[in-house]
Design brief:
287 residues, alpha/beta, Rossmann fold, 2 domains, seven-stranded mixed beta sheet, two-stranded antiparallel ribbon, 12 helices, elongated
């Protein structure tokens, strides 16, 4: 006779197992993966604690647990993530949006409060579309240009824009950084979360190195190569008083601030901290 597993039993077993295997946030991992397999939200997981799992559910759950033990990020296992006020489809072709990047969204929204409508915006290196779609969903009177060098990333971004019902206000363009916008000017805001980690950075998480697209987070030409490029060229595309806002690594605030100042193209240069109190965004206004 096969052993019976209730939601409660497998829930507590999983937390203990993930803890022993040093999987980060074992309870959260359990909640998300078990809810995913059972097609429940996390609240209903607890409401259904006494429910037994059938054999197909047990088989599928064992498979996702094995994937997690190999350090595969939960977002790639479930195929989605929640970011800001939206849900995004996630595949191995795009970087997983982090909570830290919500600081960039918030900074952009604050910068646009006093700008004229409709807003003309750009998201450079859009990846999954997290920033572009978040801004479009918050700013109904906006039009966003989103660029990426990866065709596969753009396909995911387009799909996410449709899922979040903002596809009519985002134009996706393939190309390197600002190149696809060479014929565009008058942007109220250009924003980007560019690669800012050096390949030899000892602090890169193992799961990031194993699974996430290398070119989306690593800069082979130096950690601040993309920041320098954007600071130098974005100003020509901005409207008078328009802003350039860039996400940074938590140790890069002063260096990126200096890049802005040395360009002499920006004023009101500001460092914004994330929710953990780390430097996370630097922005400047066209001088």
């Amino acid at each position: 006779m096969k052993e019976s597993w209730s939601v409660k039993k497998i829930f507590h077993w999983s937390i203990d197992y993930f803890t022993k295997k040093n999987i980060p946030e074992p309870r959260l991992s359990t909640e998300i993966l078990l809810a995913f397999v059972l097609k429940l939200d996390r609240l209903n997981l607890y409401i259904n604690f006494d429910r037994p799992l059938n054999q197909n559910e047990l088989k599928t759950y064992r498979e996702v647990v094995e994937r997690r033990l190999k350090k595969e990020p939960i977002e790639y296992i479930t195929g989605y993530t929640d970011f800001w006020n939206i849900r995004l489809k996630i595949t191995l072709d795009v970087l997983i949006p982090r909570k830290d990047t919500e600081t960039l969204v918030e900074a952009c929204l604050n910068l646009l409060k006093n700008c004229k409508k409709p807003y003309k915006l750009a998201d450079i290196g859009c990846g999954s579309g997290a920033l572009a779609i978040s801004l479009a969903s918050e700013l109904k009177e906006s039009f966003v240009f989103a660029t990426d060098i990866s065709e596969k990333a753009l396909e995911i971004s387009k799909e996410n824009s449709k899922l979040n019902k903002v596809s009519d206000r985002i134009i996706f363009l393939k190309g390197d950084l600002l190149d696809p916008l060479s014929n565009e000017t008058g942007f109220a805001l250009i924003a980007s979360n560019p690669p800012y980690i050096s390949p030899d950075d000892p602090d890169i998480d193992e799961s990031v190195k194993l699974f996430e697209p290398h070119t989306a987070f690593c800069s082979e030409k130096g950690a601040l190569y993309f920041h320098k490029n954007l600071v130098d060229k974005a100003c020509d595309l901005l409207d008078n008083g328009g802003h350039l806002a860039l996400e940074i690594g938590f140790k890069q605030g002063k260096d990126v601030e200096e890049i802005f100042r040395n360009s002499s193209k920006y004023k009101d240069i500001t460092i914004v901290k994330d929710y953990a109190g780390h430097d996370r965004v630097v922005y400047g206004r066209k001088a």
